[in-house]
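REQUEST FORM: STRUCTURE PREDICTION
Request ID: SP-0412
Submitted by: Lab K.M.
Chain count: 1
Length (residues): 469
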Amino acid sequence: MPSVDVVLRSAGGAVAVAQFGHGATVQAIRSVLACVREAVRTGGVAAPPVEALAAEAVAALERDAAPSLRRVFNLTGTVLHTNLGRARLAEAAIEAAVAAMRNAVALEYDVATGQRGERDDHVRGLIRELTGAEDAVVVNNNAAAVLLVLNTLAAGKEAIVSRGELIEIGGAFRLPDIMKRAGCTLVEVGTTNRTHPSDYDGAITAETGLVMKAHTSNYVIQGFTTAVAATELSKIARAKNVAFVNDLGSGALIDLTRYGLAPEPTVREALADGADIVTFSGDKLLGGPQIGIVAGRADLIKRIAKNPMKRALRADKVRLAILEATLKLYRNPDTLAETLPTIRMFARPKADIADAAKRILPAIAAALGNDFTVTVADCSSQVGSGAAPVDALPSAGLSMAVTPRKGSGASLEALATAFRNLPVPVIGRINDGRFILDLRCLDDEAGFVAQLGKLNALPPIAGGANGAA
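STATUS: Completed
RESULT:
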C-alpha cells in the first residue's frame, strides 16, 4: 500500500490540493486508503495504482463539495411542491435577485433625501396597487405574518376562530399553537362542520382582540356544512369594534379560473369583503419568493410595523427584490402565462404535455430495456402547497410498469431510486403498480433526455438493489 505522502505527491494529488486544499485532500486520501486496505485484507485483491487512489480521493472530495440544495426535475404532478421549493421564479425576479446579491442596494436608504428609509417601501406601493389595501408590511413567510398580526392585535386578549378553520399546515404547525405563541387566547366557536353568525356574535366580549377567518386552502369540509361569509363576519366584528383578520394563505392576486382552476378568493376580494387585515403567502399562488404579506387598514398596519417582532421576522434584500419584480409582472395579467412560471405551468394544455411524453418515450424505453414497459398515460396534476386541494389539472406523462419476465427481479422502488440517482435527480411517484412521471412541470426536455443514458451506468435496477423509493 502506498503511503499518504506518495498519493499526495502524485499528479492527481496535486490537482486535489490545488482545488480543495492540503488538509481536506490528506483526509480524503486517508479515507480512501483505509477502505482499500480493508478490501485488500478481507478480499485478497491487489491495491490499485497510485493515480487510481488519487482519482478516488478527488471523486470523494467532489461529492463532498457538491451543493446539498440540488436542482431536481419535479415530475410529481404537484406544481407547488413544498418539499421541492414551491414556486419557481420568473426570469425578471431571478435577475433582480442576482443584482441585489451582487451590489450594494438602497435597502433602508432614501436616495432622494439621503436619510434612512424603510425596506418595505420597495413593495408597499405595488401591494396597495394590486390589492386595494391602504397599507402593507412584509415578513419572511405567512406563518410569521399571522404570528405578528396576532401578537400585535390580540396579545393578552382573545382571538375568535371557527372550529372548522383551526387549520394545520405542513410540518404539523397548527393555528392554535401559533396563537399560543403569539400570546393570545383561542376562543373556538361553532362546530367542525357548521358555524353561524350568532356563534361569533355571542363570543365577542370586552376581552376579544380580533375575529379571525382562516381560509381552508389545504382541505375541504363537504356535506352538511355552514360557514359565515366574510362579508357577514366583517359586519359582526365592526359592530363590536373588533378587528377582522382574514388569513388567505395561498395569496391569489388574480382570478385563476381562466387557467382551469376552481375559484380562489383574491386578496382584493377579501379586503373588499370587509377584512381589516389580510395575510397571505408570496410563494404559493402568487408565484414569488417565500414571504408573508400583511395588507389592510393603515392604522392597524402602522401598529403591526412597530411591533418589535417585526425586525426578527423581516425579509432580506434578496427576497424583497424578488417580490418587487414578481409583483410588477401582475401589472400586465394577460402575459402572466408567459412571464410567470407558476401560471405557465397551470395554463399548460394537456395536449402539449402529451406531445412531450410521446417524444420522450423512445429514449426512456431504450434506457430501461426489457424489464419495464413504458406508455404514455393520462395524469391528474395538482396545485400543491395547501392551495386548491381538490382541484385536478388534466395532464399527461409516462407510466412505467414491470414487464412480467421470469427471473427479472425488477422493482418500481429500485426504478424510482435509479431516477433519483441521475445527475439531476428525477422525482416522480409510484401509484397503482406503476412509476409515473407527470410532465406538466418539465420545461427542459433536452436536458432530461440527455441524462437518460446514464441510467445504465447506475447500480442495477433489477432485483431492488437501489433500495426504497
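NOTES: The CA atoms of residues 124 and 136 lie 6 Å apart.
Reviewed by: T.R.
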